[in-house]
Amino acid sequence: MTSPEGTRAVPGTPGAEVPPPEATDTPARRLRGVPRQRHRTARSGEPRAAARDTGTLAFVESPVQLLNVLEWAHTAQATGLTVVVLSPQDPMTRGQLRRMAELARDEGHTVRWEEARGGPTAPMRTIGGLTPLLRRAHRVVIGDPFSRYVQLLLSLARARDLVVVDDGTATMEFISQLARGEQLVRWHRNGSGRGPRDLIFAPFSATARRRLTPAPEGGRRTVGLFSSMPVEAPPGVEVTTNEFAWTRSRFGPPRLTRAADIVGTSLVETGVVDTERYLAAVAGLARTHGATRYFAHRKESTEKLRRLVGETGLEIVRPDLPLELIARRGPIGRLIVSFPSTVVHTLPLALKGTEVKVAVCDIDPEWLTANASPRAQGFLDGVTGTARDVQRLPFTQPMAAG
Fold first, then answer.
1. pLDDT of res. 44
2. Which among 90, 127, 207, 385 is placed 20 to 30 Å from 22, CA to CA?
3. How far is CA 374 from CA 126, 183, 189, 340, in A?
4. pLDDT tens digits for 244-254?
5. DSSP label at 4?
6. Domain range spanning residue 203?
7. Is there a single domain that holds both residue 212 and residue 313?
């Protein structure tokens, strides 16, 4: 079996392809099957010229964050953004980011790629190079308020307008912690958050939390949230719904296949869910729903994916783009089955107007590891319980199928 356009399969699996090598200074290749986007202001077949800088500076560290920056710019009719990619080291994430960066350039935005983690001196070099941009920016858009890198950069920014775009389900936890005035800590982290590194970054984290807290009524600082998540923002935070209008206007509708597709998760890699329990659940879902493909999360380990192939016969697909774009372009199954994750909130929006159904499988408390955060089960239940326009599958169903 072959992987769909714009994806890569895991080496050692059916239809396997090795992700293309990429160099720091090599621009992203043109996406196969994705023509340059056409705009009213451009001549047919040419990308829109970069607009004059409007003073908006965006920081992203993942492909989904960059996608949501493009969605925000489309909704806000913001042009000429400067998007700074704080590049991670993971090859799969870097590959997706380079492809998203090309789409951002086609939209007329400037993309600045920073090797922010390329050695011990990289952080200081990156921050030093970005300081002039931070000083001039009137508006800053961020995708991950939990990121220490972003928190450090926020402490240098003078912008009066801050916008937070979705970074998946982490947005829900961010808003909850902001409303309670708590320290910003990722939901899956176990511990007090007072280790040596936490203490070093504590002043920057506190500054970032203050910057992300709306000013009193009549204040000159604004905080906005652009999200597809069901959140109750604290007073003063202006919420705009992300309906994936840019994605739907640029791609699709997709061709649908008869088989179901399963969306993978990195809950095993983050230490939340036991490996054996997860593999058994995926096998049960595949048998129950007739799934033939498994769309891997970019952080899933190759070893786990190889085991899935051997134990389930599923074709493992490594998407080259965020799943919202892959699904919208197609081909995609008429049924998409997922565990609690961002996609149970985003895919129904991206696939609006199609016949695709999205189902979510609950996480059995027995699947959690001994090291999982005490908050894990409640958070995962909240992700599932607040999802709209999805079919909910009890965790007993996939296990019973075995």
1. 35
2. 127
3. 36, 17, 9, 17
4. 999 999 999 99
5. P
6. 35-243
7. no
Neighbours of 307 (CB within 10 A): 15
Query: Rounded to two decimals, what is the model's pTM?
Result: 0.82
Distance CA 333, CA 260 (A): 5
What is the token pair recorded at 120? 């011990």
Distance CA 279, CA 268 (A): 10
The closest alpha carbon to 247, from 313, 326, 355, belongs to 326
How high is the pLDDT of residue 193? 54
pLDDT score of 397: 53
* Distance (Å, whole) CA 132 – CA 124: 14
Neighbours of 198 (CB within 10 A): 16
In a domain, 337, yes or no: yes
| Cβ-contact 141, 165 below 8 angstroms | yes
CA angle 334, 336, 337 (to 5 degrees): 145
When the pLDDT of each residue in the chain is averaged and rounded to a whole number, the result is 83
Q: How far apart are CA 369 and CA 366, in angstroms?
A: 8
In this structure, are 146 and 261 located in the same domain? no
User: Which candidate, 289, 297, 280, places its Cα nearest to that of 364?
Assistant: 280
pLDDT above 60 for 103: yes
Q: Are residues 203 and 137 both part of a single domain?
A: yes
Where does a domain end: 177, 208, 243? Answer: 243
Whether 39 and 155 share a structural domain: yes
In 220-339, which ranges are E strands? 222-227, 237-241, 256-257, 260-263, 291-295, 315-319, 332-333, 335-338
- C-alpha span between 402 and 391 (Å, rounded): 21
C-alpha separations of 338 from 130, 176, 192, 261, 263 in Å: 38, 24, 31, 9, 5
Taking a C-beta distance cutoff of 8 angstroms, is the pair 334, 356 a contact? yes
**Predicted pLDDT at 256:** 97
Q: Are 214 and 223 in contact (CB under 8 A)?
A: yes
Q: What is the DSSP letter of 193?
A: S
List the one residue out of 372, 365, 337 whose CA is nearest residue 267.
372
